[in-house]
Amino acid sequence: MQASTVIAKLRRGENPSAEDLRWFAAGLADGRVSDAQGGAFAMGVCLRGLTDEGRVALTLAMRDSGHVMDWDLPGPVADKHSTGGVGDCTSLVLAPALAACGAYVPMISGRGLGHTGGTLDKLDAIPGYATNPDEPRFRKVVADAGCAIVGASAEIAPADRRLYAIRDVTATVQSEELICASILSKKLAAGLDALVLDVKVGSGAFMKTLDDARALSRAMVDTANQAGCRTSVLMTGMDQPLAASLGNALEVDAAMRVLTEGETGPLYDLSVALGAEVLASAGIADGEAKIRAAIADGSAAERFGRMVHGLGGPHDFVEDWRSILPEAPVIREIPALEAGHIAAIDGEALGLAVVALGGGRQVETDKIDPVVGLSEVVRLGDKLEKGQPIARIHAARMEQAEEAEQAVRAAITLGEAPALPDLVRERVA
Ligand code: URA
């Protein structure tokens, strides 16, 4: 078989067979498929789509491009994954909170994708943290800390590792089939008993409408359950950043404030909602109360500290994170030019402003700057007087901050107070 044969089928609108997709996923993993061919394949799937059978076949082929893990642990193996948003560092709160509730969380996460942030890029802001440990170390940290957040590797879901990086820079993220196969190949390879998916909908999400989010949710729930993993979805709002901070070190800081300082708000609320959902699927009762208690009594923070140290980070991160996390040399406020309510926020534009500051990649080889981003971003409905800040910019250089200011102003609309939708929109199971 040749990569171009599979790509040509997509171009002609024909359905690649399960065998074609298996060959292509294996080729992504072992290098027989080039980046250019990966990009053409991704664009073909974006433009032509796959059948339901094709979506399931691609997911399983990508799962089987590497090793599928199994576990022998004294608790259920559970996890959460989101379809991607901005200011969303829920995984950093939820993984250790689930571990403190008795679940084991082998969380295989991603890097920034398009305008959205990536959990692994956030963890790279912690000095020494290894997001690509070998499998024995990954297993050891899961067993000892109860959670380990790492990336797809040469051993686990390697086809996604390649295709994810290609999609990030080729405008080929927005595809129900590719998102489903990318997320579930990693999750199914991790050998989970239970999974909750956070399907984002709104201006900062890949799915901008409820109908698109529903279709993706249905596809993922059906695919994962068919593959033997108990899975449900919460569709949640991404009409504005989840937390008021966007950027890698800034989002670790936001998660640490929830884990160690009792900060509440949408990040805390979403962590509790997703945690309760997956603990119920994993057979652990009273999930909501348990997650709240694990955050309040510091046991989630303690698990986070064990995970960070187990993966090479500082032993005192939880006690000393403020002095350990790096900070930007230029920090400046953006004052509102007029008074009014925050009427609309373009989450994608804010995410792209962070990418332009150096917090994400424009080509595969770009190095991420962990310190850049935005903090104290206003929320929908906030009432501002002229001159009050709409956000703070964290930049490496003054000229960057000036460009980011224009982008942030264009992304935030002042006007009438909008209706505020619920954070959790729908549940799909
Ligand atoms: N997260 C992933 O892992 N893959 C996607 O395609 C989108 C979000």
Automatic annotation (TrEMBL):
It comes from the Bacteria. PROSITE patterns: THYMID_PHOSPHORYLASE. Residues 341-415 form the Pyrimidine nucleoside phosphorylase C-terminal domain. The keyword Glycosyltransferase applies. One of its GO terms (biological process) is thymidine metabolic process. Its EC number is 2.4.2.4. SMART domains: PYNP_C. Keywords: Glycosyltransferase, Transferase. GO terms for molecular function: 1,4-alpha-oligoglucan phosphorylase activity; thymidine phosphorylase activity. Pathway: Pyrimidine metabolism; dTMP biosynthesis via salvage pathway; dTMP from thymine: step 1/2. It catalyses: thymidine + phosphate = 2-deoxy-alpha-D-ribose 1-phosphate + thymine. Homodimer. The enzymes which catalyze the reversible phosphorolysis of pyrimidine nucleosides are involved in the degradation of these compounds and in their utilization as carbon and energy sources, or in the rescue of pyrimidine bases for nucleotide synthesis. This is Thymidine phosphorylase. It comes from Allosediminivita pacifica. The lineage of its organism: Bacteria, Pseudomonadati, Pseudomonadota, Alphaproteobacteria, Rhodobacterales.
